[in-house]
Amino acid sequence: MASGFQNTQDQLTPNFYRVSIDASSYSTTAADNDSGGVEVDDFNFFSTLPTTLNISRRRARGNLRWQAIIDELSQFTQPIILDVTSLEAGPSTLDESDDITTSLSFTVGYAQEEYVLGGWQKIIGAGTLSNGSTALTTSTFEALSASNLATAMQNCIKEAVTRAITRGGASAGYTRTYRTMDPTDADSSYQEAITVLQPDTPSAVWADLTVTIEADLTQTA
Question: Of 111, 82, 92, 113, whose CA–CA distance to 18 is shortest?
């Protein structure tokens, strides 16, 4: 007897995944354009402000990478982002703007996973994902079992986050206007052009990412 289970984009019960980024190996040299890791909060979130302009710029780069993550995760349908946790070495919560996030975790969910999978299938095609070895399934959303769909979605999310963190590559980079602060100029804040390079190679960033099913939130029956 058939089970009656079928994947469908009209079944709008979101599935959730926990994303963890190990940024402990990323550069912390504030003056370098590959530094900054991934930072959720800008300098003004903290009561203790940056001690140098370059440290402020480093945090701005991390903020831009976080924005890139949201951008990549939102390409094909609106994600639900929950439970963002940033930790510095220790681990402990960040309490000063000079602190550097070495571990970032958040939960992402989608009510319409078909759009996400189909979008990434068009981008990846017959190629491999950012680790250089993993292929994304070419099966349609409706044809996948629940287990295989979960694996495919984990790969899609991991690819999105990897591409966001490594956006700009290792040499050209990309530039965005972002707010920084100069403590030597009466704590003046500025809008200035910030250049962002990848903090590590795509394969290394991929290796430092984990994406797991958030069992407490995902509907399994």
Answer: 82
Cα 22 from Cα 101, distance rounded (Å): 9
Task: Report the pLDDT value the prediction gives residue 11, as an integer from 0 to 100.
Answer: 54
Distance, CA of 68 to CA of 210 (rounded, Å): 18
Question: Are 203 and 131 spatial neighbours (Cβ–Cβ below 8 Å)?
Answer: yes
Peptide bond into 91 cis (omega under 30): yes
Is residue 211 within 8 Å of residue 21, measured between CB atoms? Answer: no
Give dist(CA 124, CA 127) in Å, integer. Answer: 5
pLDDT digit string, tens, across residues 38-82: 999 999 999 999 999 999 999 999 999 999 999 999 999 999 999
Question: From CA 134, how far away is CA 207, in angstroms rounded?
Answer: 12
**Mean pLDDT in runs of 10 for the chain (221 residues)?**
49 86 97 97 94 97 98 97 95 94 97 97 97 97 95 98 97 96 87 97 98 75 41
Q: Identity (one letter) of the amino acid at 119?
A: G
